[in-house]
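User: C-alpha cells for this one?
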Amino acid sequence: MNSFRDIIAAWPTRSAFALDIGSTPQGVTNMLARDNIPARYWATIVDAANKWQIGEISLELLASLASRISGEAA
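Assistant:
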C-alpha cells in the first residue's frame, strides 16, 4: 500500500470504513481527497484491518505514509 487512499480502498466499501473508524462518509470522502487520514484514527484502523483480515496495515505503515506526505509538503 502506497497511499492513504490505498488504505481506504482495502475496505469493502467507504461506508464500512467510516463505520469501523467512527467517522462519517463525508469525513472519509475528505480523507480520500486529501490522501490523508488523521492520526487519531490510526489505532482504530489497525484494529479494524485485523477484523477484515487486511494484514498489510500497521501503525508503522500509517506513520511512514504520513512522513512521506510531510516530506512532500516541506
